[in-house]
Amino acid sequence: MIKLTINSLDVSVEKGTTILEAARFLGFPIPTLCHMEGLSSYGACRLCVVEIGEGPRAKLVSSCTYPAEEGMKVRTASARVLKARKMILELLLASCPQSKTIQDLASAHGIRQQRFKQEYEDCILCGLCVRMCQEQMMAKAIGFRNRGEKRSIGTPFDVKSDICRLCGGCMYICPACQLRCTYNEPQKAICGGCANLTPPCVDKEQFDDMMCYMDPCVACEIKKD
C-alpha cells in the first residue's frame, strides 16, 4: 500500500491508483471532461488538475493520469488549482459555448461571464469518442488527425467508414453533444439556472425566447413567478 496525504488527510491506496481515483474514493470532488470510468485515462481537458508538493516546488498535475506516490502531499482545491480550472473552463467556453455540460461546470466554479471571444462552436478534443469507439465498441472507426491547431477527429481521409456501426456511442459520450443550450450571448450565457444552483441575477426579459428544457431550471422558475 502507498501512503499519501490528500487535503491534510492521511490515506493509503493500492499501487497504481491515480490521484483522481484516490480523491474521489474519499469524497473529494474533482471535475473532469475527458475522463470516464471504463475508458483509459487521457489527460486532455486538464480540468482535473491538483497541486502536489509544497513551497516553491509545488506543481500542478492532471490527477487522472498521475499515479499516487509514497509520501505525496496533494491539494485538490487550493487557490492555485481553482484559478487554473476557471481559466481552462473559460477557454473551453470560447471553443464550445453551447455545451451545457461546460456551462454548468463554469457556473459551479463561479464563472458568470465569458472574457474570451467565442471564436467557433467546435470539438474540444477530449478524446472520449475516440476511446469509446476503440475500447468499448472495438471498432476504431474514428481517430485523431493532424497536429496543433489542425488537430481534429474523424475518419481517415474523411471517407465514410465501413467499420462504423452507427451505434451513436461517440455522440452519447461527447460533452459537446450531450446537452445543448442555444442561448449563447457571451455576456449572459452562463446563467447557472439549469445547474440548479443559487438563483442567478437575471433579467426576466432575457428569457422570453429561450426556455430551457431541463427540470428544474432556476431561471425558468423565476420567469413563472
Describe this structure in words.
The chain has 225 residues and is an alpha+beta fold. It has three domains: 2-77, Ubiquitin-like (UB roll) (Roll); 86-120 and 182-224, no CATH class; 128-173, Alpha-Beta Plaits. It contains six helices and seven strands; from the N terminus they run E-E-H-E-E-E-H-H-H-E-E-H-H. The strands form two sheets. It has a five-stranded mixed β-sheet with strand order 2-1-5-3-4, with helices on both faces.
Overview in brief:
It is built from 6 helices and 7 strands.
Strand order of the largest sheet: 2-1-5-3-4
Overall shape: it is: globular
Order of helices and strands: EEHEEEHHHEEHH
Average the pLDDT over all residues and give the rounded result: 82
Please write out the topology.
Elements: E1 2-6, E2 9-13, H1 19-25, E3 49-52, E4 59-62, E5 73-75, H2 79-95, H3 100-108, H4 128-136, E6 143-145, E7 152-154, H5 169-173, H6 218-224
Parallel strand pairs: 1-5
Antiparallel strand pairs: 1-2, 3-4, 3-5, 6-7
What structural keywords apply?
5-stranded mixed sheet, 7 strands, 6 helices, alpha+beta, 3 domains, Alpha-Beta Plaits, globular, Ubiquitin-like (UB roll)
